[in-house]
Design brief:
By secondary structure, this protein is mainly α. It has four helices and two strands; from the N terminus they run αβααβα. The chain has a single domain, classed as Winged helix-like DNA-binding domain superfamily/Winged helix DNA-binding domain (Arc Repressor Mutant, subunit A). Helices cover about 45% and strands about 5% of the residues. Strands 1-2 form a two-stranded parallel ribbon. Helix 2 crosses helix 3. The model has no long low-confidence stretch (mean pLDDT about 95).
């Protein structure tokens, strides 16, 4: 399994109302220092089954989202994660 596949698998398992940081996803996927790579992978993901909006920055801010930051914040609030 590639790192990208592992990242998408980890993110697909984040439950509604919960979040992980880019660093946590990288660590769980097997490359603890690859947080930026996780961001790049998620930027290219448009599969609605993979809730990449649930991945946030280590400082607790939402971070980027390929469907727009306002949408990411709306989704996180709707799920009770913000």
């Amino acid at each position: 399994m590639t790192f990208k596949e592992r990242v998408l698998k980890v993110v697909s398992q984040i439950p509604r109302g919960k979040t992980l940081t880019y660093s946590q996803v990288a660590e769980i996927a097997g490359s603890p220092k690859a947080a930026r790579v996780v961001g790049s992978i998620l930027k290219e993901n448009f599969d609605p089954k993979i809730p990449c909006h649930r991945v946030i920055r280590s400082n607790g801010t939402p971070g980027e989202y390929n469907r727009g930051n306002k949408e990411k914040i709306r989704l996180l609030k709707e799920e009770g994660a913000l």
